[in-house]
Design goal:
This protein is 38% helix and 17% strand. It is an alpha/beta fold.
């Protein structure tokens, strides 16, 4: 027998067929925006406009990806992070995102900030099958994989958060008369819907609701209306600029209700200090991140690592700004998600990995809070703990509460 004889299958030798199968099995797969050397991530942020205090998030993300690249990237690939200023204007967001997808050809849109801005590109990105991943907004609509399989949230949803405030009011304020300030957009409406749900049969405890537009110069007139209602509880629902204005104006008017403040405006640096520390004592909000002004975290290993990162990559950054902790945490989760993709950098695999976390610990989250997702659960963080403002910082109290707690 000729030992050199080869077996052929369909015109291809068995050896070649086996070799081809091995190559296919270990083959790298890429969608647009990913390659052997680079992963392109697109992002928009309000570096200008009424929500510009959130610009620190974009700056923090840029610093985080610089650290990742300095350390060799993710699975040997550098991150090309393209961030654009949309001014918190939905039409501008549409323009920016189209540029990122159609011209810059990013692999995915990561942590785009704002409820109205994300809403403006929600359908477009899902039609294009471009991941809209870990969005920087807590609107409940971001957890709808059945209808929008390419969009996933990150932080606790506004609806659940507001329910927690409402139930705390009912349990702690006898015969409460509640005034509500609402930002007139999807985020504000989501908060109010959850708040009413939490009040249940006591929804008539709301004696006055006043809304504002993000283009308004102030909310002074709205606060005057709310005070005149005779309310003894004030639910402040808005972005930092207007939340600070509202609490300062209430104090100027001599109105001293119990104040509940939405988490997205609970920053010491951009809300509480501008409102005046004397005016915000006792304000209650929900937390899910470690606040860097809280001294209990001074010797915490995660916060020590965060401080080291700030010192190296954000020198001069405000160490009292919790949104830098936010940027650090969400970028850490994105890094892990991309790592798990390995060499299969397809958009479908990215969403598959994002939907497969089980009680995953992300630095910066409060103790007892982890990330869990599944193909039917697109809400990564689903727990909060209440905190009260005292002095120049927040003090946590009570237990960690999840959606089930409400």
């Amino acid at each position: 027998m000729n030992s050199n004889r080869r077996s052929f299958v369909g015109g291809m030798s068995a050896a070649t067929l086996l070799s081809t199968a091995r190559v296919a099995y270990g083959q790298k797969q890429y969608d647009e925006g990913a390659s052997d050397s680079t992963i392109k991530l697109g992002h928009t942020n309000p570096y200008s406009g009424p929500a510009s205090s959130y610009g620190v998030i974009g700056k923090g993300l840029q610093a985080y990806w610089k650290m990742v690249n300095d350390q060799g990237g993710i699975n040997g690939r550098k991150i090309d992070f393209i961030t654009l200023d949309d001014g918190y204007s939905p039409p501008k967001t549409v323009e920016c995102v189209r540029q990122l997808v159609e011209q810059d050809k990013v692999f995915c849109i990561f942590n785009l900030l704002g409820t109205p801005t994300n809403t403006a590109v929600h359908k477009y990105l899902n039609q294009k099958k471009v991941p809209q991943l870990y969005v920087a907004t807590g609107a409940s609509k971001w957890g709808d994989p059945q209808h929008f399989p390419w969009t996933m949230g990150y932080q606790p949803d506004y609806n659940t958060e507001a329910q927690i405030y409402a139930k705390h009011i009912l349990a702690n304020v006898k015969d409460a008369r509640i005034a509500v300030l609402m930002q007139n957009d999807d985020a504000g409406k989501d908060y109010v819907d959850g708040f009413k749900k939490g009040l249940g049969k006591d929804v008539d405890r709301i004696v006055k609701l006043a809304s504002y537009e993000v283009t308004d110069p102030t909310v002074d007139s709205q606060v005057i209306q709310l005070k005149s209602s005779g309310a003894d509880v004030f639910f402040v629902n808005g972005i930092p600029k207007f939340a600070a204005q509202a609490m300062r104006k209430a104090a100027d008017l001599g109105w001293k209700p119990r104040i509940y403040l939405v988490n997205v405006s609970a920053q010491v640096a951009s809300t509480m200090e501008p409102a005046g520390f004397d005016n915000v004592q006792g304000v209650i909000t929900a937390a899910w991140l470690k606040d860097p002004t809280d001294k209990q975290w001074d010797n915490d290993a995660e916060m020590k690592a965060w401080h080291a990162w700030m010192a190296k990559y954000m020198p001069g950054g405000n160490l009292g700004e919790v949104n830098y902790v936010y940027a650090y945490s969400v970028a850490f989760l994105m890094t892990e998600t991309l790592k798990r993709c390995g060499d299969m950098l397809t958009r479908a695999n990215l969403m598959k990995q994002a939907a497969d976390f089980r009680k995953f610990r992300v630095p910066g989250l409060l103790p007892g809070i982890t990330v869990s997702t599944s193909p039917t659960d697109f809400y990564p963080v689903q727990a909060v703990q209440l905190q009260r403002f005292k002095g120049k910082t927040w003090e946590l109290f009570g237990d960690v509460m999840s959606a089930e707690s409400t």
